[in-house]
């Protein structure tokens, strides 16, 4: 039986009538940009995360750029970011005029640590981007306490996760989400959000997402046209009440994998950070020969993928700018070389997990 790598469609099937009704509501309202649906979604999303403010934006990449701008990061500044992440985590930094400086990750958790960030900090560091990679929860509070610098949480992959200090999105100075269709909370197109507990930052973000203006009369900043649209907000509002159940399913599926693969030392399972309850966005294992393992799984109809085989600091655009690594990144290199995402979704069944795990065991011995 074929097992897909992810499956965003199945959990939405039972919600189809509600989604149709939400779309019709927006069409009937004849209001498509910054209307009631976006406002309502912002309130509901903030309440769900346990944070004061949420602001809808166009996507998760611009969300990071706007969050950095709102924090006052600009030319001459450095922003620490993990090299093992999706490209956009770092790509979002140069548009504000700042330089990305790459921190290592712990290859057990795929997240930065206090020590890995320390090695990347200089007197020019103005902010830290902590990525809650694959649904794990990065140590945001520890980073802010240790370094006294604002942390931007890149929570694009961690909607539905929680940690000892609360949910991603409510842990640092400011946080960013993506609602790209395959994420834990996915729109029917691009979308994103910025969350913060700081009212002044939220105001800056609201202005920046709309051309740097609050009233369409006075333009305070050279801003962005970066808005979540009404249709996406209405569709997200239908899904939000189900996010926790979907997250619980992802977490349970991670526990099934851990049971099935326990004792197979050639396979390194992802480790939740202390106290974290990850809603695994991707379930990413490590193996010394991930490409051979991938071929074996694919021959059995099981989809799998190495997402970040080349770390961000080694990408051509970063090398061309002269922004390569400034410290050793051994955890990044191990994670990049060995990781492999195996099937995970809010709809994956126990039988599918058993089938995938059996194929992994057959290869790994
Ligand atoms: C998806 C993603 C982004 C970018 O989000 P978009 O909505 O696609 O722009 C940023 N960071 C991480 C970690 C992501 O997974």
CATH superfamily of the largest domain: Type I PLP-dependent aspartate aminotransferase-like (Major domain)
**What is the CATH third-level topology name of the largest domain?**
Aspartate Aminotransferase, domain 2
Count of domains: 2
Please tell me what the overall shape is: globular
CATH class call of the largest domain: Alpha Beta
Percentage of residues in strands: 5-15%
Tally of individual helices: 13
Organism: Paraconexibacter antarcticus
Keywords: Aminotransferase, Pyridoxal phosphate, Transferase
InterPro entries: DegT/StrS_aminotransferase, PyrdxlP-dep_Trfase, PyrdxlP-dep_Trfase_major, PyrdxlP-dep_Trfase_small
Family: Belongs to the DegT/DnrJ/EryC1 family.
Your description of this structure?
This protein has helices at residues 16-29, 36-49, 60-70, 88-91, 114-118, 140-147, 199-209, 230-239, 243-261, 290-299, 316-321, 330-338, 350-364, and strands at residues 53-57, 78-82, 99-103, 125-131, 151-154, 174-178, 192-196, 283-286, 339-342. It is an alpha/beta fold and 365 residues long. The chain has 2 domains: 10-241, Aspartate Aminotransferase, domain 2; 243-364, Aspartate Aminotransferase, domain 1. The strands form 2 sheets. The chain has a 7-stranded mixed beta sheet, sandwiched between helices. α3 crosses α7. The two termini are 22 Å apart. The mean pLDDT is 97. It binds pyridoxal-5'-phosphate. The site of pyridoxal-5'-phosphate has 15 residues, from α3 and α4. Keywords: Aminotransferase, Pyridoxal phosphate, Transferase.
